[in-house]
Design goal:
Distance between the termini: 48 Å
Shape: elongated
Order of helices and strands: HHH
Oligomer: single chain
Radius of gyration: 16 Å
Bound molecules: zinc ion
């Protein structure tokens, strides 16, 4: 048995964080997703379609849970 150090596991589960339903992650405020104009446009479209309120969209963009 060798005493090997455990590799540091960095939890960056992008697939879970950036889901189609929630393209903005909540763990990293500096992540590019929060400034992605395409994502903003998508959210704006959802507001236009009545799927999201403006308040919900803002919180989504800021990465806060609804
Ligand atoms: Zn992100």
């Amino acid at each position: 048995m060798q005493d090997q150090p455990q590799p540091l596991v960095v939890l960056m589960e992008d697939d879970l964080i950036h889901a189609p339903k929630n393209p903005f992650c909540s763990i990293d405020p500096c992540c590019d997703c929060h400034t992605d104009q395409d994502l903003w446009a998508e959210v704006a479209q959802q507001v236009t379609n009545g799927l999201l309120t403006l308040e919900e969209a803002t919180r989504l963009i800021l990465g806060q849970q609804l």
